[in-house]
Amino acid sequence: MDTNTDLLSISEMARLRRVTTETLRHYDRIDLFKPCYINPETGYRYYSFMQYEVLGTIKELAQMGMSLEDIKAFLNHRNLDESIIILEKQHEILLKEIQEKKALEKIMHEKIEFLHGIKQNNRLNELFICHFPERYILSEGKPGMTTKQMCKEITCLEGRLKEIAPVFASNRIGAFCYDSINTFDSNMETFDYSPFIECDSKYKKDPLFRVIPESDYVCIRYHGRFGTYSDSFKLVAKYMKDNNLKQNGCFYTNYELDITLTKDFDDTILLLQVPVKKV
After folding, report:
1. At what angle do helices 80-120 and 68-77 cross, to 10 degrees?
2. Which CATH number fits domain 121-278: 3.30.565.10, 3.30.1140.32, 3.40.50.11810, 3.20.80.10?
């Protein structure tokens, strides 16, 4: 056979179709695209000009997301009806991927906005009043956990969320305490918290679903860790006393900046929220 005039060498075919020679060797090994002639003495592969379009089809179908196995099946049984079916199938897959990408883009945008908000509003030990609407959490509601138990519990709670990247760069991880803010002082090293993860109403059938009532909250940001005392507690208690406010339910702390965002525990930021009402 005159390989100089009738056929393309593997390197020529690879160059014309802008693929690698290793790609063509792989296609040969899996019986997807085999050379029409192999020199018995040298083992060199050669392709006909007619195979140029077939390789082009393989390349374009792969660009549309088809697996090599599906491409192989299509090439072996291709006709007009099969072409329509395969394109409609890939179109459905593409639409699903687009929706997933849109959802991921929205999540990433919200996380970026959240982090910019922390950077702009990270003043510590400044009291402010905030009205929170009804909120929802997942929690066992068991106080008195050790640090290790709390970490394990938060991990278990996170596993109940059927969402994309639900925790990273968010303030959804928190803990609440049944006690009064006035019971704490600087002599206390730790106190009993129950960890939670904020969620939305779609989790209301979860047995761990709980409601945080709508209320006005006295809030303050401070450096620290769950379950440890901060002088910020004293500031909140004094403010409540001076303004004739009474604690109205459990108080809450949320990590606004946690160890997923900083490697230094001393840089973490907690938001203390104490529900209040007029005495």
Report:
1. 160
2. 3.20.80.10
